[in-house]
Amino acid sequence: MNKKNMIIAIDGYSSCGKSTVAKALAKRLNYIYIDSGAMYRAVTLYLIENHLDQDLQKIKEALPNIHIEFHVENDKSIVLLNNKDVTEQIREMEVSEQVSTVSAIKEVRKAMVEQQQRMGKNKDIVMDGRDIGTTVFPNAQVKIFMTADPKVRAVRRFKELQKLGKKTTLEEVLENLAHRDFQDTTRKESPLIRSNDAVILDNTNLNHREQLDVVANEVEKAITKNE
Ligand code: C5P
Q1: Domains detected in the chain
Q2: Which of 25, 39, 51 is nearest to 132 (CA)?
Q3: For residues 9-32, average pLDDT
Q4: 103 lines ligand 1 (CB under 6 A)
Q5: What pLDDT score does 226 carry?
Q6: Given ligand 1 and candidates 35, 89, 130, 182, which is best to mutate, with the most ligand atoms within 8 Å of its CB?
Q7: Buried b (16+ CB within 10 A) or exposed e, 127-158
Q8: With a threshold of 0.70, does the pTM exceed it?
Q9: 3 C-alpha to center of ligand 1: Å?
Q10: How many Å apart are CA 113 and CA 129, to the nearest integer?
């Protein structure tokens, strides 16, 4: 029997540490890591830069002109928007504030989901996001749903932003996370929900290593099943 390519879907709330776990796992397994949130952020940045954030018709027309790619340089994942490195820019507060509105647009989701499915074709991948285990890859062999106490998440994100030299307050970050969670879980198009077959990983009190162990254990079971 032919071995199927492995898909590992990591979904969950904003700033739960999904990308940290996903990246570490991809590195350990030598799989490709795809940050689907970065794709929605890149679309949002494009719309902001081109002043299209309010105009649905223009957004639809712009979608074919938005090309997103990932490159790995010196172990760092680089996000390219129409060949320009936007890795840092897409983490700005202005993008964070608008991304959940943009990602609720049906046409934007359709375009991103198609691209994500193409990226995972015949490859072993780890993809993180909100709808990977439910919509993008409902047949993923491993599905993880990450969650953590909102205050703990906000403090982690605030520290990250501070390290990057971004000016913001803890209250602002907490508010942004709550707002994004609300929009992501209540939107009509593939809202953030836990797939019934996803394993819950609450990392409020877990360090990186412990989180990676939980996920790696699930992957091992799935690989054995796949063989
Ligand atoms: O993962 P990250 O927090 O960077 O994602 C930014 C935003 O992109 C999320 O708040 C969510 O609105 C949107 N998103 C999504 N579906 C995904 C990944 C991200 O709607 N698969």
Answers
A1: 7-226 (3.40.50.300)
A2: 39
A3: 95
A4: yes
A5: 80
A6: 130
A7: bbbbbbbbbbbeebbbbbbbbbebeebbebbb
A8: yes
A9: 31
A10: 11
